[in-house]
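Collaborator request, handled under Task 6.
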Amino acid sequence: MSENLLEIKNLKKYFNVGSGTLKAVDDISFSIRKGETFGLVGESGCGKSTAGRTILQLYRPTGGEVSFDGELLNELKGREMMEKRREMQMIFQDPYASLDPRMTVEQIVGEPFDIHGLYPKEKERKEKVINLLETVGLSEEHALRFPHEFSGGQRQRIGIARALALDPKFIVCDEPISALDVSIQAQVVNLLQEIQERTGVTYLFIAHDLSMVRYISDRVAVMYLGQIVELSTSEDLYEKPLHPYTKALLSAIPIPDPKIQKKRQRIHLEGDVPSPIDPKEGCRFCDRCPEKMEICEKITPKLQEIAPHHEVACHLFHKEKPL
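Structure tokens returned to the collaborator:
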């Protein structure tokens, strides 16, 4: 599992707004290996979903490169890009808004076939749709129903079936469980893992629920205000977090043991998240960081490997001397 499927280098996505430039994704770099689940976590508004959409070229990057299976996506247009999209799909966050209420489940799941000109014979197309529904735990009787007739968990299963329709190599899971009840979340995550074991598909799993990301991910990157501040294996990140922001996030995860939970000390971050519009130089977390130094306000820390397979963007661990 050492071969990389995706290489993201210095990826940027900026939006021009009335008061300046909103830097939603600002110079991030990482790779995703074939067959792994790469977790991307952070607070709401940190740029996770924008990063996922930019990787898939749903948003064209402002700068940087996205290489998929050895091919540079930035250079693909028109027919070439459409062909490549068969290998990359997305599961959207909201199972209510992502399904057309006027289409039946058969039409929704079969729409990728129509777009790419696959299975023109109605019988063959229907058989393929039914197989996909059965793969995600639904049945043939659900094919002629409309989205409003299903629960949230069932709707997300329909979205997963649609994402699997073209047998993709890579799927961006954009907070696929955040809109679901807790009792349903584990079912959807287990389903994703079962599909991965069977097909070898690669996931980018975007979420703000760190406990669930730990369960499903092989490696995890932590984002803050458009930048990656820590990247490590899932085990190392949760057992030995380095960045103060990562430590604060992990301290908020409840432990199902009252005695241990009572002894834990929650790290409360002071201040508000700075605006992503034309952010100032320096570490973007420094205004809220309990361990900030003078250098943090003047120089933006770069992501560097501090321990084997563990990278962090923080002056506490870098070789620069404080000013």
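The cover message to the collaborator said: "The first helix runs from residue 48 to 55. The first strand starts at residue 4 and ends at 17. Please let us know whether this matches your experimental observations."
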